[in-house]
Amino acid sequence: MHSEQIPLIELDQVSKTFGKVPAEHSVQHLLQRLRLSKPKPVTHAVDRVDLRIHRGEVVGLVGESGCGKSTLGRMVAGLLPVSSGTASVDGKPLDTLTAQQRHAVRLKVQMIFQDPSSSLNPRLRVDRIVGEGALLHGLTDKRGLDDYVSAQLQRAGLSPQLRQRYPHQFSGGQRQRIGIARALAVQPELLVCDESVAALDVSIQAQILNLFMDLRDELGLTYLFISHDLGVVEHLCDRVVVMYLGRVVESASVDDLFARANHPYTQALLAQIPRFDIRSTRYDAIKGEIPSPLNPPAGCHFHPRCPHATVRCREEVPALREVSPNHLSACHLNDYR
Ligand SMILES: Nc1ncnc2c1ncn2[C@@H]1O[C@H](COP(=O)(O)OP(=O)(O)OP(=O)(O)O)[C@@H](O)[C@H]1O
Ligand code: SF4
Ligand SMILES: [Mg+2]
User: Fold this and answer.
1) For residue 284, what pLDDT is reported?
2) Chain Cα centroid distance, residue 229
3) DSSP character string of 73-97
4) Which domains can be identified in the chain, with CATH numbers?
5) Residue nearest ligand 1's atom 4 by CA
6) Which is more confidently placed, 315 or 24?
């Protein structure tokens, strides 16, 4: 459907490593060779990921804890530089833009975090929190600021009368709405929601999720929706991307993924959810431990836990390939089907 359009966001073989391998001939390198200094571990948090997000799409990003979802989300939002590969917005690679252009592009993508309390400055009143960015970026002027802030608060479902209060005077759900109003104030096109409702009571979660969907209709917003809750993802998203230890292992439309998961890892994730109670179960109980991203298994990262693993799986990284239209999976089994 979207194949001819330029994606809003495109990641091309994007990786993120934490901790550096010292450059050859550097002092650190020499010290490590002489065993006078211990090598620092390198985490491959995100490993050569391709991802496209088209305007208007709601893309879900799932995978067990530590698989790199937040790191990927932060790179999409421009909050973390990529270690290698190319991130593009509207077809323009970020590393070819001037600092000013990059700044403008960054406003297009806003992040909504899990814990609104830690992302809101406790010493500022709500109107400053919501209005500051818009004023700074010239989206409103001082005279129009009050009305501008009121409009954002209303959009996020908060009464403008509460504008003089401080964050601690609000409930968790309301604080999340303040964070949403602040994001909306800079007129973004994409919201990266990183476990944005995970810390809230279930009834409040539903309200915030409804707000996200209303905003999608009203403002034509696009979403990258990171969630542990597969029920929420099934309910909300158009497409789902599944990560395992830094790599994308499967990507498909929500209907395809939940009806015809291809990758053994995705199948294992989905098998954890009893269908009669999809909302309450989180996927944290797949057999076998998640290997450390500091030292991921060779070949297919999933092989130590995969019931179908063969010798080839231990040696060769499976490529992400189309198994049916717009359904990608990275598993050697598809070569024999
Ligand atoms: N700033 C950092 N410095 C070093 N390592 C990091 C940093 N941020 C993340 N990591 C590591 O990168 C890997 C991926 O982390 P990330 O937070 O992206 O995972 P996640 O999928 O969001 O997990 P969760 O579901 O628990 O939020 C983990 O091994 C994590 O420890
Ligand atoms: S490539 Fe091999 S180990 Fe990996 S998911 Fe497929 S069958 Fe399992
Ligand atoms: Mg995370």
Assistant:
1) 47
2) 14
3) HHHHTTSS--SEEEEEETTEEGGGS
4) 9-108+188-336 (3.40.50.300)
5) 18
6) 315
